[in-house]
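Title: Comparing notes on inverse folding

I've been comparing how different people in this forum approach sequence design from structure. To keep things fair, I'm posting one structure and asking everyone to reply with a full sequence. Here's the target:
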């Protein structure tokens, strides 16, 4: 039973996942598959996948940080040329050069390749075509990383795309509603204390935590 109330922080990502799972269980979903943005989104997504008896897989995308302000997103990148989202306004205001953008893209694609090897080596990927695909993170701010994930996911031919996040600002929700079929958010907030301010426990996950969760959902050999 989920006892969380809107307005108070989530205890942790697991509780956030349970809240979203309850909302998603009320929807008419067709053969759902849950796709997490690592690392933090994996814990949230695991609770959803367990509640829906759905497979759990990953959307490998990375934020592109402004060179001198890495926490400020100037875009995001995923696997493949189409999975690239740039925020032209942030790039212009921060004075980021084309060379700096190219360097950031190369650096984050290298990290995506590393994560693919660490997290997915030897694992069968879950088919997405014709299914209700649920893209999950532990929260979104500008939405750039999620949008890159949606560009990646769209190429796989899902029946519908659902974004599910515990917390997001209203302007980002509106943007995502234009790029996904449905958007499910537990708490709409202007994020005065960032995404982490909506959690009591928002620790950074290690690779080992991600692989341990994925092992729980591995199909039987």
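Reply #1:
Here's my take.
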């Amino acid at each position: 039973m989920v006892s969380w109330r809107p307005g108070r922080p989530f205890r942790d990502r697991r509780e956030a996942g349970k809240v979203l799972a309850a909302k998603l269980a009320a929807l008419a979903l067709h053969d759902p598959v849950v796709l997490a943005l690592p690392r933090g989104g994996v814990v949230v997504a695991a609770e959803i996948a367990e509640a829906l008896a759905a497979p759990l897989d990953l959307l490998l995308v990375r934020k592109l940080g402004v060179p001198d302000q890495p926490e400020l997103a100037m875009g995001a990148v995923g696997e493949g040329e189409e999975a690239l989202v740039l925020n032209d306004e942030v790039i212009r205001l921060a004075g980021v050069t084309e060379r700096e953008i190219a360097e950031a893209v190369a650096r984050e694609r290298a990290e995506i390749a590393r994560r693919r090897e660490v997290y997915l080596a030897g694992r069968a990927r879950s088919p997405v075509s014709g299914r209700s695909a649920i893209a999950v993170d532990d929260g979104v701010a500008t939405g750039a990383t999620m949008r890159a994930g949606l560009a990646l996911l769209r190429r796989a031919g899902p029946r519908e795309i659902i974004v599910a996040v515990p917390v997001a600002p209203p302007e980002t929700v509106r943007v995502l509603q234009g790029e996904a079929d449905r958007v499910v958010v537990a708490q709409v907030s202007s994020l005065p204390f960032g995404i982490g301010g909506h959690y009591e426990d928002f620790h950074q996950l290690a690779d080992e935590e991600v692989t341990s969760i994925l092992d729980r959902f591995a199909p039987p050999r």
